[in-house]
Design a protein that fits this description.
The N and C termini lie close together (about 10 Å). Helix 1 crosses helix 2. About 25% of the residues lie in helices and about 25% in strands. The chain has a single domain, classed as Rossmann fold. By secondary structure, the chain is an alpha/beta fold.
Length: about 140
Amino acid sequence: MATIISHSPAETFSMGEKLASSLRAGDVLALDGDLGAGKTQFIKGIAAGLGHTGAVTSPTFTLVHEYTGGRLPLYHFDFYRLDSDDDALRIGLDDYLAGGGIVAIEWAGKFPRLLPKGARRFQLRAGDGDVREISEA
């Protein structure tokens, strides 16, 4: 995936859904972008593409959500409210990284040292209206 332009939340969802078909156990997705850039919508599509049928919401206040019942479990983190590497480790990041599922981290750029080598990095940018730019670094 290079840079893709989404023109709606539905397209952003669809892009995540398509990405899910290529994901394997142990993959780590590091997402960055301003508030409202589409990170959670992209992850909603990934969850759907993995076969999760329940609601997917941002873990801004809970810090991590677990989505199971699909082809692979999805562990959805949000580092926005964390202040240090230690905070991320205290919520069990290392255990999730070794857990055999997919780890998707919003605001991953806050603690880049915690990302394993090989993590796939995505930058999301909001444009005019519902336009979003999704780039894999």
